[in-house]
Design goal:
Number of strands of chain B: 10
Strand content of chain B: 25-35%
Radius of gyration of chain B: 28 Å
Shape of chain B: elongated
Number of strands of chain A: 1
Largest sheet of chain A: none
Strand order of the largest sheet of chain B: 1-2-3-8-5
Largest interface: A-B, 71 and 57 residues
Oligomer: heterodimer
CATH topology of the largest domain in chain A: Rna Polymerase Sigma Factor, Chain: A
Order of helices and strands of chain A: HHHHEHHHH
Number of helices of chain A: 8
Structural class of chain A: mainly alpha
CATH superfamily of the largest domain in chain A: RNA polymerase sigma factor, region 2, helix turn helix motif
Chain lengths: ~180, ~230
Amino acid sequence: MRTSWTGTAWSAACEASATPFEPLVARYERPVFNAILRLAGNADEARDICQEVFVKVFENLRSYDPSRKFFSWMYRVAINETINHMKSRRRWEPLSDTLEYGHANPEQEMQASERHGEIQRALLAIDLKYRLAVIVRHFLQLSYSEAALVLDLPEKTVKSRLFTARQMLREILEPRNHAIR
Amino acid sequence: MQSDSERLIELVNLAADGQATPPQQDELQALVDQSAEARQLEASTRELVARLDHVESVDPPAELRPNVMRRVRSGTAVRHIHTLTRRRRFALAWAAAAALVLLVLLVDRPRRLDDHGATMAPAAEWPAVASLKSGKHTLVIRQKGNLYRLEPAISGSYPVVTTLIWDPKAAVLVAISAGPEASSSVHKAEFTLHGAEDRASVTIRRLGGAPFEIRVEVTGTEVLRTRVPVN
């Protein structure tokens, strides 16, 4: 069950002492870490980004609008933080032909199952905006309307991106069976 | 206006997500009954959605929550300073200034090879700005301001001699954490790794505003090279 943190009193309590914040980290660390991992493709980076996300959420509790769902605000912070990190990472250009960025090779955890490794490789091969649609729908397990809230997009656009993303993934995963476009 | 194939794709996806209304389900069923292509699309989309929904989630690192809470608690401690009396704030400000001076003295004094205490603890929390891979070797680079911590993970027939090399005009060695066999000069740090679990790190400070290269050699052969950009 998803808890809706709507109380400004709770935010105020966190400002006075960090203790009330810990259950929130416990509740959200798994989905947030996994979403970042699928988005960025590298466990070390995901850990660092995830840590920054929770600290940022804590530091910005005062600006949280209680009329919005807490999870949508938090996931949005996570996505923005990851995208910013990925943009800064692009500045690091490998000079050697043999070099690969970490995200080209899914981490050991994800390779526990070859099928899951295959999914991760396919995800990393599609454009970021389509990858995001898949991640919010399947890894954060949000409905279309919730995904639209998190991505700050019209629901119609989210659906369109999700359906296109699935087409792309099908083409990557089953290259023989993608006659319908 | 949607084409027939666009409509089919929409219906198939809505159905796979369990979001199709009864009329949409009927419409899809009619299309599936008529066309082998539609049946194939429906089956493969359902299979893909099931695969995506069943990807196992990964356990977050055990240190994640304690690290977050430690940083968050230190943040609230800072906020509490605002509620202190003026006299205590004055005293705390003097203490902070003294600590800062001490830190500067520690960082700037001549370094011995094992002198990394001043930078090791915070460096572990620096964000990884690059994770580079070349064959079986990786190099994680963490950054804080003009400090870069280089963390190589080298595979091979142990022991392996690993060398990190940089332009001495562009960067200077700050600390090396690599055991007693480590050595260094103005432009490189060299150490021996005795197994896959063996870890070493080198912290360097960028001197100027220009990008510079870092090279990694394993037993004298270059295995990785990257350019460090300027923020």
